[in-house]
Amino acid sequence: MESKKSRKIVIVGGSAAGSTVGANLRRLDDFSEIVIIERDPDVSFSNCSLPYYFSDEVEEIDDLIVTTPEQFKTRYNIDARVNEEVIDINREEKFVVVVNLETKETYKESYDYLILAPGGEPKTPKNLLMDKVFTLRNVEDVRNISEFLRDNEIKNVGIIGNGFIGVEVGEAFKLAGKNVTLFGSMEQVLTPFDQDMAQIIHKEMLDHDLKLVLGCRVSDTTDYGVEIESGKVFPADLIILAIGISPNTKLVEKAGLKIGETRGIL
Length: 266
What we know:
- The chain is α/β, with parallel strands linked by helices.
- The protein has six helices and 17 strands.
- The chain has helices spanning 16-28, 69-76, 139-151, 164-175, 195-207, 250-254, and strands spanning 8-12, 33-37, 79-81, 84-90, 95-100, 106-110, 113-116, 120-122, 133-135, 156-160, 179-184, 211-214, 218-221, 225-228, 233-235, 238-241, 245-247.
- It has a five-stranded parallel beta sheet with strand order 9-16-10-11-12, covered by helices on one side.
- Strand 11 (179-184), helix 5 and strand 12 (211-214) form a beta-alpha-beta unit.
- The protein is elongated and about 65 Å long.
- The relative contact order is 0.15.
């Protein structure tokens, strides 16, 4: 019987895309070496469930984690490495340069095939950043927000962003008994919906005493709260930025790969 050829596959990024492709590759291929390299402390977590930890619908933070590095090893024989970041790609010699974010040590990892799943970074305008301003992209963000809630008396929560994440986070904090104000530059929440559909959602939110400040831009965050372009300031002890993401393409640009019109990997 002809022996199967063993290849080495390195996956950059261990969130939804990277973890899924790694697991599926293993189902198709029992022989190849598969390595996932993730710069955050967790791989394979439930992105869509993140807001609902704050409404107690998810009881423990660790319940958000789908598969740990140890489980990747025992279930799939995949080497999933966390707190490590790929900082360079040598396409000619087929290796990546990796830095351990805890020890700051670097090493080279060879590959036969390289899969890029670097994801995106939350948009964080510098004028809006301060100690009480957070994004919600991963489990580590949940830990940081949870710690802030534990150490501070939080009554008023400001959500900047009128998309799906903003609405979900607003709902979660409202269920947690907080006063919530959602800010959006558009005249409606959830812009993929027609305006008449959005009005139904607006009514539902307002009926549950979730304040909407729409059709204006946020200009600043202050010790008191959120300031909009008219100069009016709304109280907020905790602020969540949910104004979208930017593709994380610094590594691939450095490697000479082409970037598309929307700034993603072509």
